[in-house]
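Appendix B, example 12.
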Amino acid sequence: MKPDRDAPIGVFDSGVGGLTVAREIMRNLPSEKIVYFGDTARVPYGAKSRENIIRYSKQIIHFLMEQQVKAIVIACNTASAFALDEVRDEFEIPIIGVIEPGARVAAEETKNKRVGVIGTVGTIDSGIHASYLKKLDPDITVIGKACPLFVPLVEEGWLHDPVTMEVTARYLQEFKDKNVDTLILGCTHYPLIRSTIREFMGEEVRLVNPAYETALDLKALLQKKDLVSAGQEQEEFPYRFYVSDLADKFKAFAGSILPYDVETTKKIDIEKY
């Protein structure tokens, strides 16, 4: 049975970072409805084992399918790295991650074939960006670096703080030293400190925001599958938010970065799925 084209898009992340992906979907596909799940009880994924991340991802996909979504975006680099292939094989529904779109754009943009990737420990250790980039262009040199302090700084709201600037300088000096001309923001939190990263790296370095590229890939996927919303059923609340813990904290953060006020966030027991 073909999914309903006016059904929502499912988007999930380990917590609030995936809201940067949801924000780009809202901007670039304004007629689409979204069901967002943030796994705030089990965040961060970056330090978890592959087996656990696959298990979490499957639970969340079961929940989203109960919400009758027509496609799913894994808006988490760590879950995209560890679980995407496995869940694509298991579920009928179209599923995309955030790593391929960013890697593709970086391969197209780099002039000197020196690409940097920043992300969580799990994402960087998986080497997945490097393997995608090498497939696209074997001549590319990939320099990866885990930047674990960026996530708590973003969640603390210290987006333009001197502390964040200092941490950025410490983490990213290596990319300047190695003459990187393209840098992939390989964690969905990082676009929120893009201006700080830009200030340190300089205008000549191309920053790739996979959240934006993923929204464009989603648009192309929906067109290909004839699943673009006709936008006829305008709902009062086209965006629904669910979390596994700390609903009020999530709601406050979401309200600060999304282009509209988040009315409610509902906590659910994800372990039931």
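The longest strand covers residues 114-119. The chain has a mean pLDDT of 94.
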